[in-house]
């Protein structure tokens, strides 16, 4: 393989896809020009199926639109879309206690609130990225304020309803990993020691609690002190989440002049998770595995969702940048070949989100409350940047 040619081909592909496929699709079918913000429940052809708005995605697309503006091209429509999502968040998505809703109507009437604080994380990175694009410091300050409030919710007993009753005391990987990325995005625009402290705390927690060498795995749920919980839920490996965590840590290692300990941790997680996740029979990254190789409980356990593939594309490029090891460029080729063969919709644009294990389409919608313009465009933007740096 001529690596330079290979990387250049992908750099061109990623940029073209963002400019001519992904962003136009969501700008046309997702952006709500009447109420502000973005719809995500759209069918294969972009037609609206449900006007309910995912609060997650107001922040997610607010981030993506500004991220594309900052790193792909200075398209003023993208910046305006980011601002539209942020304005909608500020007007409609916070409850009186400061905790965000999960679903609202198209004009912002609250429908549902959950115990999670992911909406806060996405709102914060949207404001941080918008601040980076415009130089408006107030949005960086708002991002930091949301981040600190999120920490308060997580650190104060009783503020958020626990997932389980006291008989099953546990801690989860998801929020631990997302705080790394959230803090690092905000740190791009505002300097506060709480951000790096949170990154350090999250990485320490991953090492102490979630890494289980006896299974060569990072587990999704463990006991309060990292105890292995020998139940269906306690044995879950989510390869996509683990691989996403790996590149978050690689990004932090890079920020610290390629810190060797962080890089070693990230590569270990990536290598283990690839072994668990890569489907040797059909290709692609599988949804869930059981760390004792027992049958996984989740009914989507053997499906191929869009986002684990995109996270793996980023992670393998990062690993190649960090190490120069050809195995990672080969892994990038494996995952990219499979993903680009099965997910893009050549007729209507954008990507399918949900495939059966063999790569056939399970359902053709382009979005819902959980799939929308985030993982795919983030992969294309980040991977374009990595390819250009490598070249």
UniProtKB/TrEMBL annotation:
It comes from the Bacteria. InterPro entries: 6-hairpin_glycosidase_sf, 6hp_glycosidase-like_sf, AGE/CE. SUPFAM superfamilies: Six-hairpin glycosidases. One of its GO terms (biological process) is carbohydrate metabolic process. The keyword Isomerase applies. Keywords: Isomerase. One of its GO terms (molecular function) is isomerase activity. The keyword Isomerase applies. Gene3D superfamilies: 1.50.10.10. It holds the Pfam family GlcNAc_2-epim. Belongs to the N-acylglucosamine 2-epimerase family. This is N-acylglucosamine 2-epimerase. The lineage of its organism: Bacteria, Pseudomonadati, Bacteroidota, Bacteroidia, Bacteroidales.
């Amino acid at each position: 393989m001529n690596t330079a040619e290979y990387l250049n081909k992908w750099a061109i592909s990623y940029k073209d896809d963002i400019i001519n496929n992904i962003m136009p699709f969501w700008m046309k079918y997702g952006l709500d020009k009447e109420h502000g913000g973005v719809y995500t429940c759209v069918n294969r052809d972009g037609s609206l199926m449900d006007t309910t708005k995912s609060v997650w995605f107001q922040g997610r697309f607010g981030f993506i639109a500004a991220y594309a503006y900052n790193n792909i091209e200075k398209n003023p429509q993208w910046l305006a879309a980011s601002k539209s999502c942020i304005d909608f968040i500020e007007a409609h998505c916070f409850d009186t206690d400061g905790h965000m809703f999960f679903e609202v109507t198209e004009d912002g009437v609250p429908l549902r609130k959950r115990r999670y604080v992911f909406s806060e994380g996405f709102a914060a990175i949207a404001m941080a990225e918008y601040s980076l694009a415009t130089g408006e410091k107030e949005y960086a300050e708002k991002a930091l304020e949301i981040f600190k409030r999120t920490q308060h919710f997580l650190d104060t007993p009783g503020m958020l309803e626990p997932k389980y009753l006291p008989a099953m005391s546990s801690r989860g990987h998801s929020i631990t990993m997302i705080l790394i990325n959230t803090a690092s995005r905000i740190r791009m625009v505002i300097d506060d020691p709480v951000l790096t402290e949170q990154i350090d705390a999250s990485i320490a927690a991953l090492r102490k609690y979630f890494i289980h060498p006896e299974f060569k795995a990072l587990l999704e749920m463990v006991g309060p002190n990292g105890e292995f919980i020998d139940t269906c839920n306690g044995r879950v490996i989510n390869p996509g989440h683990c691989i996403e965590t790996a590149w978050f840590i690689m990004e932090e290692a890079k920020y610290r002049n390629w810190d060797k300990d962080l890089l070693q941790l990230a590569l270990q997680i990536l290598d283990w998770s690839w072994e668990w996740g890569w489907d040797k029979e059909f290709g692609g990254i599988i949804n869930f595995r059981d760390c004792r190789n027992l049958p996984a409980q989740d009914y989507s356990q053997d499906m191929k969702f869009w986002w684990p593939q995109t996270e793996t594309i980023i992670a393998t490029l990062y690993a190649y940048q960090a190490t120069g090891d050809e195995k990672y460029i080969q892994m990038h080729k494996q995952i990219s070949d499979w993903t680009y063969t099965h997910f893009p919709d050549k007729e209507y644009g954008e990507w399918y989100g949900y495939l059966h294990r063999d790569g056939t389409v399970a359902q053709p919608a382009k979005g819902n409350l959980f799939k929308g313009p985030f993982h795919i465009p983030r992969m294309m933007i980040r991977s374009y940047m990595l390819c250009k740096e490598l070249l």
